[in-house]
């Protein structure tokens, strides 16, 4: 892919990590700890989180690249004594790395910023199922893989950003409506190769079927104001510049700009607004970032303990306030900018369907020439 895989500074070298993983894979027990039924949100029952019993380290291969994550790993270490060793890279590269490392892989946890990439990790055979009462009680069923291979840790809404000088909120309704003739030459969206768009299409296939989703994609392509280019931030900037009237983006890109102290970004935000589509039917599409325990994890209990820590209300609040994401745990406060966007109905189709339908999505976008 051409992206450099980075080892977190001040952590073990990759050679040392690999050696440690080999030794521990031969000597450490990997059976899961038993846990009682739980409700961490506080509705009256209790549970025992997984207790770390191994060497005080957990090796995380992460495709998330946010400063807030490092804050959480430090808090986890202070609370448990377990040091989080981080190797960062692009998701597909990390999946291939873990697969090539095989049974000697030092990786304990794989983390990605999209359900589609987590599905790819599961298909590659690098994840193992986890039975955790804490995770199952904390994370709604639709935000986790049904057999426990991976779990959503944060949510991101795929919203519409529009120019209020050219579009009224009453003009907007659904994703599907953007394929109608009145939007011809007025829509911006990034490439179909982007996993966020592929996951949106995967969710639509799950609900609407392939023919209806393909018809929508063809109509959307016909209504584009320009060929797809750039990332979500570029789509927001294009709406503000009048290059298009509406675009499909993840909500946190707009929220990040809204919190910026840069005059140019403040100007973009002042010229745009957010709309949650499909509120009168299935709800707005949400994606996740999440993680799972690797199949040969040398520190399995520590890996489960890390995932369980990341769904505590305290950790969820850090995710929400530090990276403008929506928590997966109910009752956690939002970042003030995100909170001002208002409450919205979520499409609760299971996120695992995004990856399962991805092969059909790839063929579909090729047929409609969505570049």
Automatic annotation (TrEMBL):
Instruction: Give residues annotated as binding Fe cation.
Output: 65, 252-253
Record GO cellular component, one term: outer membrane-bounded periplasmic space
Q: Which residues form a coiled coil?
A: none
PROSITE patterns, sorted:
PROKAR_LIPOPROTEIN (PS51257)
Q: Which residues form the signal peptide?
A: 1-30
Domain of life the protein comes from: Bacteria
Q: Does the keyword Signal apply?
A: yes
Give the Gene Ontology MF terms in alphabetical order.
metal ion binding
**Keywords assigned by UniProt?**
Ion transport, Iron, Iron transport, Metal-binding, Signal, Transport
Quick one: where's region Disordered? 30-53
One GO process term, biological-process aspect:
iron ion transport
List the PANTHER family: IRON-UTILIZATION PERIPLASMIC PROTEIN, THIAMINE-BINDING PERIPLASMIC PROTEIN-RELATED
The similarity annotation says: Belongs to the bacterial solute-binding protein 1 family.
Q: What is this protein called?
A: Iron deficiency-induced protein A
| Source organism of the structure | Prochlorothrix hollandica PCC 9006 = CALU 1027
């Amino acid at each position: 892919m051409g992206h450099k895989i980075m080892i977190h500074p001040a952590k073990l070298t990759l050679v040392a990590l690999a050696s440690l993983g080999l030794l521990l894979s031969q000597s450490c027990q990997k059976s899961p700890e038993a846990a009682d039924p739980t409700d961490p949100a506080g509705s009256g029952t209790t549970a025992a989180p997984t207790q770390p019993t191994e060497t005080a380290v957990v090796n995380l291969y992460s495709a998330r690249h946010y400063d807030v994550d490092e804050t959480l790993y430090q808090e986890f270490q202070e609370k448990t004594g377990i040091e989080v060793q981080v190797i960062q890279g692009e998701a597909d590269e990390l999946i291939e790395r873990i697969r090539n490392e095989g049974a000697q892989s030092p990786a304990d946890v794989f983390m990605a910023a999209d359900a589609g990439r987590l599905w790819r990790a599961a298909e590659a055979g690098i994840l193992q199922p986890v039975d955790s009462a804490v995770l199952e009680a904390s994370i709604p069923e639709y935000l986790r893989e049904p057999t426990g291979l991976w779990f959503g840790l944060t949510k991101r809404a795929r919203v519409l950003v529009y120019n209020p000088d050219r579009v009224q909120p009453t003009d907007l309704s659904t994703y599907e409506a953007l394929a109608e003739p009145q939007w011809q030459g007025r829509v911006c969206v990034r490439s179909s190769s982007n996993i966020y768009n592929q996951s949106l299409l995967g969710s639509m296939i799950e609900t609407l079927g392939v023919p209806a989703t393909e018809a929508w994609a063809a109509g959307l392509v016909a209504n584009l104001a320009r060929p797809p280019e750039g990332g979500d931030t570029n789509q927001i900037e294009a709406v503000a510049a009048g290059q298009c009237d509406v675009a499909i983006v993840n909500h946190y890109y707009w929220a990040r700009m809204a919190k910026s102290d840069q005059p140019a970004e403040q100007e973009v935000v002042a010229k745009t607004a957010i709309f949650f589509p499909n509120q009168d039917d299935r709800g707005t599409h949400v994606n996740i970032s999440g993680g799972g325990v690797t199949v040969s994890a040398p520190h399995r209990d520590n890996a489960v303990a890390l995932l369980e820590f990341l769904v505590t209300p305290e950790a969820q609040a850090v995710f929400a306030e530090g990276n403008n994401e929506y928590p997966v745990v109910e009752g956690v406060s939002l970042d003030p900018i995100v909170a001002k966007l208002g409450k919205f109905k979520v499409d609760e189709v299971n996120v695992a369907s995004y990856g399962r339908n991805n092969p059909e999505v790839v063929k579909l976008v090729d047929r409609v020439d969505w570049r």
